[in-house]
Amino acid sequence: xxxxxxxxxxxxxxxxxxxxxxxxxxxxxxxxxxxxxxxxxxxxxxxxxxxxxxxxxxxxxxxxxxxxxxxxxxxxxxxxxxxxxxxxxxxxxxxxxxxxxxxxxxxxxxxxxxxxxxxxxxxxxxxxxxxxxxxxxxxxxxxxxxxxxxxxxxxxxxxxxxxxxxxxxxxxxxxxxxxxxxxxxxxxxxxxxxxxxxxxxxxxxxxxxxxxxxxxxxxxxxxxxxxxxxxxxxxxxxxxxxxxxxxxxxxxxxxxxxxxxxxxxxxxxxxxxxxxxxxxxxxxxxxxxxxxx
Length: 293
Description:
- Residues 184-287 form the Pirin C-terminal domain.
- The chain is 4% helix and 49% strand.
- The protein has 1 helix and 27 strands.
- It has one helix at 271-282, and strands at 14-18, 21-25, 29-35, 46-54, 64-69, 72-80, 83-87, 92-95, 100-104, 109-115, 122-130, 141-145, 152-154, 160-165, 167-168, 171-172, 183-189, 194-198, 204-211, 213-216, 219-222, 225-229, 237-242, 246-253, 261-263, 266-268, 290-291.
- The strands form 6 sheets. Strands 2-3-4-11-6-9-12-27 form an 8-stranded mixed beta sheet, with no helix packed on it.
- A hairpin with a 5-residue loop joins strand 13 and strand 14 (160-165).
């Protein structure tokens, strides 16, 4: 499906490049934490972005045994490989190649995410999206979205875009959120192709290149780097040109401008709320996520 190109008159520049830091998470899974806690205020409403990828099963096969969350949403996107989700109510889902799981932790859920294969490539991302104070104690919810249900289109320049959240070039994504208005695109560009995306001036935005190299304005952004896009009142979007065959995720959202109090997997607005989350989890009060129909 071919769509008309969005017109960006004044593109955003790159404010800075971020390389992230390699950490161990879960039961020893090696990941690149691209969006770290120090960037949460700058990239509000986004709290964390982890990129993971390996063709060595020992790097990831132990997975992420049962762990709690409260106060935000997780978006798990599997570029390659499979991940099985289970929660404390017995709900279970499988994210396969190209699939997404969108989970709203809300008032609290305990779940596990485990690789469902023992060899081959495992590659993907997990993004944490904050919830507004009024939604932090909402009912937990999740939805598994197979790759075939993610809307996509191809521009006249041959750029293929998968619209996970928000909308691009008139194509609505698989998920919409009124409060934070997230945009989440997977953009694959052939060499020398250009892609433009309109962005609201007040939204914080960034992109992460995981194949090739692109130019944002005159700034090269190589694979393995996140480019934070500068906020400017007159800017109306971003213009990306591929220096070679490239692939990236482009993410933007409306900032909540609320206090952030985080202790590991609990993200609330005050320290007292965090302490309560810890106590509730220890007391076994966390509910389970409800799968969408």
